[in-house]
Design goal:
By secondary structure, the protein is an alpha/beta fold. The chain folds into two domains: 135 residues, 3-Layer(aba) Sandwich (Rossmann fold); 216 residues, Alpha-Beta Complex (Glycerate kinase, domain 2). The chain is 37% helix and 19% strand. It has 15 helices and 13 strands. A six-stranded mixed beta sheet has the order 3-4-5-6-9-10, sandwiched between helices. It has a five-stranded parallel beta sheet with strand order 2-1-11-12-13, sandwiched between helices. Strands 7-8 form a two-stranded antiparallel ribbon. The longest helix has 18 residues. It comes from Streptomyces xiamenensis. This is Glycerate kinase. InterPro entries: Glyc_kinase_flavodox-like_fold, Glycerate_kinase, Glycerate_kinase_RE-like, Glycerate_kinase_sf. Keywords: Kinase, Transferase.
């Protein structure tokens, strides 16, 4: 007798259209429409960026909300997730682009202060292991604001605290990290990121990601110099070249230096925390995906991590996506047998994003007919 298909849906969000949980729900509808007897399990995933806390809550973590300082210095409501003594902290919740008004960027003054407050709230709730997911940030301050929120002192030539943001780092004269929250020493902090860029230079935080946060060429140059100066004053230029130091505007550097964080690829960490291995054992087919399957996907984003885990376990994996920008050979090399893009059903991107749910159900129907 043929084995009853058991499908595990482990997809990331379709940015701008659907959360990871919504992706799973729509895929499940399509699968069951085409194959009514199929067993479906959903495990929404994330790689440390936007949606990480939501994925943790879907997996059984408890949501905690707190008011913190947003990237522009005004209060915002942010959330982290807890299970036992493990906390999932998503810096975008406190310091993300989502907290900027539409069309407004602040590359020189956006701060990670709220991320530090969010970490402090997790410590207050009893966290002894913290997964700090970084991505989607509005900031390029090297994690300076985060460190100050946790007790560091960063002063200018007059002995005054530096203003918020990456720009003012060029005025830094002295740094004292001895006042950092002592609980950090007894806490395991994992820097979870899908990028391994250094802090400065042509592949650094400002050069690569600054333009996405509104930085023009002049601002990129100023921020890169300011981050380099920051590392010099702190006396740890060696860490500036460490993998992940340039993640999320350099917050990786601040975490590696001040929080004794350990850098790990975000999707690997999240798959462990979310219980992916146990779910994978129950599956005969895995469906992963995200809004755009492209070259960035292959460099450590959620679908690539899911595919790598599936390959190691000998499980086939296919993908759903909004748009497909890599060829079939590259997909197979990453361990994904086939992709089902919504663009094949609706070529207009705006219409596809607007109707992503129903389109995804149709794509999942075709997937079920092909694969189950």
């Amino acid at each position: 007798m043929a084995q009853t298909p058991r499908v595990l849906i482990a997809a990331d969000k379709f940015k701008g259209s659907l959360t990871a949980a919504e992706v799973a729900a729509h895929v499940a509808v399509g699968l069951r429409r085409a194959r009514p007897g199929v067993t479906v399990e959903a495990l929404p995933v994330a790689d440390g960026g936007d949606g990480t806390v939501a994925a943790a809550v879907e997996a059984g973590f408890t949501l905690h909300e707190v008011e913190v300082t947003g990237p522009l210095g005004t209060p915002v409501t942010a959330a982290f997730a807890m299970r036992g003594t493990t906390a999932i902290v998503e810096m975008a919740e406190a310091s993300g682009l989502r907290h900027l008004p539409p069309g407004v960027f602040a590359p020189l003054i956006a701060t990670t202060f709220g991320t530090g407050e969010l970490l402090s709230a997790a410590l207050d709730t009893g966290a002894r292991t913290i997964v700090l997911g970084v991505g989607g940030s509005a900031t390029t301050d090297g994690g300076a604001g985060m460190l100050v929120a946790l007790g560091a002192k960063l002063l200018d030539a007059d002995g005054d605290p530096l203003a918020y943001g990456g720009g003012p780092l060029r005025e830094l004269v002295s740094a004292d990290l001895t006042g950092l929250d002592p609980r950090l020493k007894d806490t395991d902090i994992i820097l979870a990121s899908d990028v391994d860029n250094p802090l400065t230079g042509p592949q650094g935080a400002a050069a690569v990601y600054g333009p996405q946060k509104g930085a023009d060429a002049q601002a990129v140059e100023a921020l890169d110099a300011a981050l380099g100066h920051f590392a010099e004053v702190l006396g740890r230029t060696d860490l500036a070249g460490a993998p992940g130091a340039g993640a999320a505007g350099g917050v990786g550097y601040g975490a590696l230096l001040g929080l004794n964080a350990v850098f790990r690829p975000g999707i690997e960490v999240l798959l462990e925390v979310l219980g992916f291995a146990a779910a994978l054992e129950r599956a005969t087919l895995v469906i992963t995906g995200e809004g755009s399957l492209d070259e960035q996907t292959l460099r450590g984003k959620a679908p690539a991590g899911v595919a790598a885990a599936c390959r190691a376990a000998g499980r086939p994996v296919v993908a759903v996506c909004g748009r497909l920008a890599i060829d079939a050979a590259s997909l197979r090399a990453a361990g994904i047998e086939r992709a089902y893009p919504l663009s094949a059903l609706e070529p207009d991107p705006a219409t596809s994003m607007r109707n992503a749910g129903p389109l995804l159900e149709r794509a999942a129907e075709q997937l079920a007919r092909d694969q189950l």
